[in-house]
Amino acid sequence: MMNEQDYRDHPGRYGGVLSVDLDALVANWRLLRQRGTDAMGCGACVKADAYGLGAAQICPALWRAGCREFFVATLEEGLALREIVPDANVHVFYGVTPDCANEFIKSGLIPVHNTLDQIDIWSHHAGRLGQPLPCDIQVDTGLNRLGLSMLDAELLNDDNGRLKGLDVGYVISHLACADDIDSPMNNEQLQRFRRVRRLLPMGKASFANSSGIFLGADYHFDLLRPGAAIYGINPRPEMPNPMAQVVRVQSRVIQIRDVEPGQSIGYGAAHVVETPTRAAIVGTGYADGMLRALSGRGRAYLGDRPLTFLGRVSMDLIALDVTGLAPDQCRAGSLVDMIGPHNPPDLVADAADTIGYEILTALGSRYRRVHVGGTAFDP
Ligand SMILES: *Cc1c(COP(=O)(O)O)cnc(C)c1O
Q1: Ligand 1, closest atom to CA 47?
Q2: pLDDT one-digit tens code per residue, 334-375
Q3: Which residues line ligand 1 (CB under 6 A)?
Q4: Band of the pLDDT at 152, cuts 50, 70, 90?
């Protein structure tokens, strides 16, 4: 592994730099936590390597800030987290399978049970070991993704013995339309979740993702469960973003070239220039998460200056329009912002017809990754 100094000495090793501002990230987590009450907990969803930004650096920073509940999707992610934040409560959304129950138990990971079968597996192991086993229960309130049905919840209410040996930490559910404050779905799911809590009143309750936190106190329950907003994604797309920007992606100019009118740039000769054009060819492509859908639509920045994408995004390269810039303003070795202050992940996502979540998780492994800040111990 190279360090930052090595990068400065050898920028030529990488096509670009991905920096993650851990201070901004921790500030975002605190801002979300403050929207709840003191008695309430605030966890963090760190699945998919903390939304692509590096769980190994991000989780310890959140831990130092006071975060104790971490959510991942897979057992494998949970096992990795065990090493990174050994004393944290690690919740695994996919829940338990017969072949992996012992690994959950051995590592003290908390499965989120989504089916009655998963509950039965857990109860069986608790009986076998003669001790209650920690877990969560997810109930589906309308997203129709993971979780017990309302009918299952009623069944459990009638047949409480089925929960024997389960030490239920949280009963959870997940919102489908939380980013749309006007959606009637939000209140429908809230009412259903309240009924879930009457049927399954054990443990604590967790309901709100990032956007859900901004739907109001009714949605908060005992534990907030944000992901995206921690990483700077706007939880209320219709309003100015209250979150600080966490990620910056700078791409290195590999070569500058002049293109004559009538010539084309890139695969498929999809872009034909009409006037003399100077192109900066930068070392980032769709393999680095600059989606091919950004072809002809994306925008990078050199300082405050926008540079439009010319032609198709290829695997490792993108052509940017630097016509009119003086040779010393942009040359081989210059760094341009593919994601930066002027083009945050949400804007890049708009240009690619997707969401900021996908932009972050797609960033890939080829960047020189730098995590700055996040060292202060200040719970
Ligand atoms: C990913 C996830 C979250 C976090 O959602 P964000 O919109 O990123 O805040 C919360 N709950 C569940 C079940 C999830 O899968």
Answers
A1: 1
A2: 999 999 999 999 999 999 999 999 999 999 999 999 999 977
A3: 45, 93, 174, 209-211, 225-229
A4: very high
Amino acid sitting at position 249: V
Span 127-137, average pLDDT: 97
Helix axis angle, 75-84 relative to 55-65, nearest 10°? Answer: 60
The tens digit of pLDDT for each residue in 266-290 reads: 999 999 999 999 999 999 999 999 9
**CA 235 – ligand 1 centroid, Å:** 11
β-bridge pairing 299-302 and 305-310: antiparallel
Euclidean distance between CA atoms 71 and 176, whole angstroms:
18
Residue 267 annotated in active site: yes
Please pick, among 164, 231, 267, 286, the residue that the annotation labels catalytic: 267
How remote is the CA of residue 356 from the centroid of ligand 1, in Å? 13
* Alpha-carbon gap, residue 7 to 127, rounded angstroms: 55
The yes-or-no verdict on residue 183 having pLDDT over 70 is: yes
Beta bridge partners, 135, equal 168
14 is catalytic: no
**Which burial class, exposed, middle or buried, applies to 281 when counting CB atoms under 10 A from its CB (0-12, 13-18, 19+)?**
buried
Which of 14, 47, 51, 231 is catalytic? The answer is 47
